Structure prediction request, 506 residues.
Amino acid sequence: MSTRTKPEGKRPTRRAVVKGAAVTLGAAAFAKAVSPVAEFAEGLTVEQFLRRHYKELSEDDKREVLARIERDTEAEYGAACKVADPPPLPGVKFAYAINLSKCNGNGKCVEACHRENNHDRDTNQSYIRVLELEKGSMDLEKGNTTYDHAVPAEGKDYLPVQCQQCDAPPCTAVCPVEATWKEPDGIVVVDYDWCIGCRYCEAACPYHARRFNWKKPTIPADEVNPDQGLLSNRIRPQGVMEKCHFCLHRTREGRLPACAEACPTGARVFGNVADPASELRWILANKRVFVLKEELGTKPSFFYFFDD
Amino acid sequence: MAVLAGVPLAIGLSAWSGGGSVRADEVPAEAAAAGVRFPVRVNRPSGPPRVLVDTEGVPPGTTVACSTCHATRPPDRTNARTDDLDEFHQGLVVRHGDSTCLACHDPTDYDRLRRADGRPVAFEDVMDLCGQCHGPQRRDWRHGAHGGTTGYWDLTRGPRTRNHCVDCHDPHAPAFPRMRPTFKPIDRFLTPDAESHE
Prediction:
């Protein structure tokens, strides 16, 4: 993990943070904040609970972590899988652009994400929400995700929203245990083994892009996607946060994210914005391009554009 | 959705103020860029369409080329629109601007298409036909901003596949069809209240 550039320095132990938070929050508030984790912790061995942050592990330790997750998944879900930990690619800065003149709200991206990323089947969980909005009102606070009619509907616009992979992410700053951080290729990741489920990051995200796992995901064995990443689509335990990770188990291997491939309208464009010859750069230079809630200064790596 | 264009800026969506210096005509074709090892494959029709023959005496599923009939009959320019068809091809729906049949089909050879200046276009190269009337979309397509992509964003690691115009647009009635969303989040489960209902 030598390529990871999480800021070094004071790295609190999980124990210390848990104590510190209790002091500032008040014991009752803290108990409430961590209650899902407390339940979850019962099933864990002491070793697992106190295990150091995986980024601090030796290569051998890491191999053991990946192997353990593969074993656990096989045992709990009856599905053999391969958990990898692909590092960020040098010289690559990922970005996304969505053509809002083309998106028609059909939701195939939402479904592709659901399947690719081993989301809970009972809740149709997905990292993507597609909002239906009054035409001309790009206010994501007023959107509706549960529309159920032929699209595009008269007088409506559609706005797909997922993690904007901000360059100034408010979510990582509030994490009391540094379980979430931004990688050099621009992807904001969550360490599911380290997250305490306090949900501060969820509250801090202006795009509502972070989700809490209220329950253990249910997925039939034959639907488990076996191609898994440690920081991406491996099956998340109950009681931790999760969010879009640009399908890093695919994109760090050079492939497109599942949602991009699934889009039937061709509205989704993904790539390396550091490459001057990329499609993204052409779009940024030649289209009317927007970011959501620009005034907040979050500097998204996620763009929206129109054809004319 | 094209109507969205020109809407006044609304809350929540603000102009992106950055911007590269790359201009459309300076962008090297992806295939020519340095270090590229894998191709960009473009879907294309396998060849001219054929017509199913549904008559007694021929095995079911038999098809014939367009030229089978058209080589023996002179092109009829008065057959410009579907309403003009009374002998054959009835039921064909053509809703595509004011284009007449022979604006696209080559009257000298019905197994191919034609440009406005009369130069022939093979059915496999149908995008060149579309491109002459839809320059902006053809340009956007070339830059990946229209038409979608599957495969690898990184051509040093694997190939990429591009749809072509007729994958998504029926040349006779090109309006993109309306769709029915089939997958919906179950939002109430995303809230804390859901916990108590388990």
Q: What stands out?
A: Chain A touches chain B through 81 residues (CB under 8 Å).
